[in-house]
Amino acid sequence: MTLSLNDAQKIADAVEVINQCLPDSKFGLPDEIFYLVSRLTPMINVDLLIVNERNEKLMTWREDQFYGPGWHIPGGIIRFKELTETRISKVAELELGATVSWEPRPIVVREIMNPKRDIRGHFISMVYKCKLTGPLRTKDEASNSAQLLNGMWKWFVLMPPNTISQHLQFEELFNNTFD
Fold it and tell me: Which end of the chain has a smaller Cβ tally under 10 Å, C or N?
C-alpha cells in the first residue's frame, strides 16, 4: 500500500503518540489500542477444553458486545511476550477461579473468523486439553433454574445448542470421548 507523504506523516505522528502513552504491553493493552491492533492482525489465543472423569467438558457463559450471549470454551488472548502456559493458567484463574493441568501440545489449531466484523474478528486458536487441579468457584455454577450471567460455568457431555457461533467449529472435537 502506498501512502501520500501527508498520510504517512500523520501515521508516524500517531504511532509516536501511542508509543509515548502506551503502558508496558506485556500486561495487556488499553481497549482502544487493542481494538486497533485486532483490526490490523489476527489475535492468537488459547482455548481450554477442560475434561472431567465423566467425559464432560466445561463451558462458560459469555455475554458481550462482540459475541453475544452463549456458551463458549474458556479462552484468552496471549499477551505480547507472554508464554502460552502463562495464558492457560490465567484463563483458568480469571474465568473459573481454578487451576488446571494441560497437555503440552494443542489438540487442534484453528482459525476463527467473523467475516462481518473487523474488531476482534480474526483469531488463531490453539485448543488445549486440560484437567482441573483445583476446585471451581461454586458461586458461579449455572444451575438449571438460574438465570445465566456472564462468567457462569457448567459441564456438558455434548456441545449445547446455544454455543457461540465461532465455537461451533469445535463441536466434533467437543463431542469426542477422551481417555
Answer: N
Q: In what order do the strands lie in the sheet with 57-64?
A: 68-72, 57-64, 153-156
Q: Is the pLDDT of residue 145 over 70?
A: no
8 A C-beta contact, residue 58 and residue 131: no
- The answer to whether residue 19 sits within a structural domain is no
Q: Is-above-0.85 flag for pTM?
A: yes
**Any bridge partners for residue 75, and if so which?**
47
Number of domains forming the structure of the chain: 1
Residue 139 in contact with residue 149, Cβ under 8 Å?
no
pLDDT of residue 100: 98
Contact 113, 123 (CB under 8 A): yes
Confidence of residue 128 (pLDDT cuts 50, 70, 90): very high
User: Is residue 16 a part of any domain in this protein?
Assistant: no
Which range of residues forms the domain containing residue 169? 25-174
Strands 122-132 and 100-102: antiparallel
Nearest to 73 by CA among 116, 41, 106, 40: 106
CATH code where residue 74 lies: 3.90.79.10
CA 171, chain centre distance (Å):
16
3 within a domain of the structure (yes/no) = no
